[in-house]
Backbone:
C-alpha cells in the first residue's frame, strides 16, 4: 500500500515528462526494469526529474569512489534511516554491483558495530578530542 | 561536558583492566593516542572490554572489505544517527586511512542523496518490487 | 499484525471509557470513521484519553497556524521518524484538509532537500553562526 | 569545531566556483550574510553548487506553498533528524519570514504531539486502515 | 546557545503563568532547582503548562513501574533520539533516583546491543514471526 | 519479504556453526522456538555467533538490572529506532518476562512523553545545565 499511485508502463508512456525519465533510466541502467520508486514519483514530475538527475549524476557516473563502495554507503544510510524499501533496493543494488557474501558479512558487522558505539557515545556525551579538529 | 568521567592516562594506568585495554589499543593502532570514547568507557570496564574487542575484530582485522571502505560505512551510519563525536572521529579516521578530497566529496554526495531519497520513499510508502525478493 | 488487539466498534461500545473517547472523536471530526490508532490504544485507556485530548487540543482547535499547515508539519515529522502508519494517515489527513497536488509536490521537495542538507551539515559538523543566537 | 575548514570571505573570493555561488546566495537573499553551511561546503565545490541550486529552486522560488510554510516543514524535518545547526538556522529563517510567537507555539505543540504519537504507533505497530489506501 | 530566551528566576516570577508552573515544579520535586528545559519553554506558556502537566502525571506520580525504571526508559529513548540535553538530564535524573554504577553498566550494554540488533534486523528486513502475533 | 534467506530447521541442522548457535539458543531459552532474526543471520555465521554471544551475555545472564527492566529498555530503543520486527519481538519478550498491562501502559506513557520532550528540547536547543556536569 502506497500513499500515491504506482504508475504502470502504459501510464508512463502516455506522459511525455515521465516517459523521458523512464527512457533515460532504462538507457542509463541498460535494463528494461524500472523499480517502484520512480513509478511512485511519476505523479510529481518535477521531483521525479530532479531526483533522477541527481541519482544519475551521483550513482551512475564514474567518480572517485567505485560503484560498489557508493552503493554500500547508500545502504548504510538507508538502514540507519530505517527505510524498508531502500534496504531492499540497495541490498539488491549492491549484489548487482558484485557484493560478495564475505563483503556483505563485513557490511553487517560494521553497521552493527557503528550503531552500537553511536549509542554508547551519545549516552556518554563524549567530548570531541582536540586531535580531531581541522 | 560528558555524563561520565573522562579518564586520564594516570587513572587508566592505575586500573589493571583499563590499562590492559588502553595498552592493546595503543599496540593495535601503533600510536600513543587513545581517544575520548575509550576514556569515557573506562568507568564501565565490562563494556569497555567488549566494545574494544568488537572494534578490534571488525575494524582492525583484515577482511573482505578494505579498511577505508569499512570506515566510510561507519561514517555514513554515524552521520545518519546524528552522532556528533562519531562524525568527528570517523571523518578523522577515514582521512588517516587515505580518504582523498575527491572521495570525501563523493561520500558527501552519496549520503546527501541517500537521505533525500529515503525521505521521499518513506513519504510515498513505496511497495517493495518483487524483483528485490530473495 | 499489531503488538496489541485492535478494538472493534462492539468492543469499544462495551467499555465506557473507550466509548466516551470514540464518541468524542466522531463528534469532533464529524465522521463515523475511527482509525486504527485509536482502536490500538483502546486497551490502554489512560493513554487513549490523554493522547486524544492532546490531538483534539492541538489539531482540532483553531489556532495561529491553519489546519493544513499543522498537518504538513505533522507529516514531515512522521516521515523523518520513519513511521509508516503515520505517513499514511497524515498524507490522507492533508488531502482531506485540501492539500493540492502542487502543494504535495512542494512538500516532497522540501522534505527531500531538508533531509539532504541535514545529513551534509551533520557530516561537516557546521558551527552555529553567531547571527542565529537569540 | 567542524570536520572541514570554514571558508572566510577572502578565501571564497579567491576561488571562482565558490565566489560564483556566494555571489548568487547574496543576490538571491538580498543580504551580505553567507551562513556557515555554505562556508563548510566550499571545499567541495560540486556539492556546494548542486546543494545551492536545489535550495534556490525549492526555497527561494515562488511555488504552491508559501515561504513560511516551507520553512516550517524544513524546521520540522531538521528537528526530527536531530540536526542542531539546522534547528538554529531554520528557526532563524522562519522568524525572518514572519513567524509569530503564536505560530511558533503552534509549531512546538505539533512537533511534540507528532513525535509522541509516532512513538506510540511504532510501539503498537498499528496496521494501516484500508481507508487510507490510494 | 538556544533558539529561544532562557528565562531567569526574576523573569519567571514576573509572569503569573510561568511562576505557577515553576512553583509547582519546585514543590513536586522538593528542590529549588528548575532546569533549563522549563526556562526555555517559558516563552511558550501553553506548551510549558501542558508539558509539565504530562511530566508530572507520568514521571512524578506513583504507578506500575518504579521511578528508576521509568527514568531508564526515558534515558533509552533520549539516547536513541540523539538528544544531547536529554542524555545529560536523564542520566542525572537516574542517578538521583538511585541508579548504581552496575545498573548503569547494564543500561549501556543493553542500549548498545539493542542499537546493534536493530540495525541488523533492518538491514536483513526480517519478517515478523507468527508467534509474535497478538 | 527479507533481503536474505530465512533458514529452516533442516538447513540449520546441516551446518555445524549454525546448528551450534541454534542449539545454544534453545538450551539457554529453554524453548524449541528459534525466532526469525537468527534464521536471517544464519547465512552470515560470524555475525550470527558474535550477535548471539552478546545477546546471551547481556540479556540471558543475571546482572544488576532485572530481566524485565532490561527488556523494557531494549523495547524503548527499538521503538525509537523505528524497528518494526524489534517492536514485535521485544513486546512479546517483555510479556513473556511478566510485563503486566499496567506496566505496559506506563511504558507507552513514558516513551510518548520522552519522544515529545526530546523534540521540544531539540527544537529549542536547550543548553545543558551546569548542575548536570559530572
Residues:
Amino acid at each position: 500500500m502506497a500513499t500515491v499511485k504506482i504508475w504502470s508502463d502504459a501510464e508512463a508512456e502516455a506522459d511525455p515528462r515521465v516517459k523521458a525519465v523512464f527512457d533515460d533510466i532504462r538507457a542509463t541502467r541498460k535494463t528494461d526494469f524500472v523499480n517502484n520508486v520512480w513509478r511512485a514519483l511519476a505523479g510529481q514530475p518535477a521531483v521525479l526529474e530532479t531526483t533522477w538527475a541527481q541519482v544519475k549524476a551521483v550513482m551512475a557516473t564514474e567518480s572517485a569512489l567505485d560503484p560498489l563502495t557508493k552503493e554500500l554507503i547508500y545502504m548504510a544510510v538507508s538502514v540507519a534511516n530505517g527505510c524498508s524499501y531502500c534496504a531492499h533496493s540497495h541490498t539488491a543494488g549492491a549484489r548487482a554491483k558484485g557484493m560478495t557474501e564475505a563483503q556483505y558479512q563485513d557490511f553487517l558487522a560494521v553497521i552493527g558495530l557503528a550503531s552500537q558505539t553511536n549509542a554508547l557515545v551519545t549516552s556518554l556525551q563524549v567530548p570531541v578530542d582536540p586531535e580531531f579538529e581541522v
Summary: The two ends of chain B are 47 Å apart (CA to CA). Chain B is about 70% helix and 0% strand. Residues 1-61 of chain B form a domain with the AhpD-like fold (CATH 1.20.1290.10). The first helix of chain B runs from residue 9 to 13.
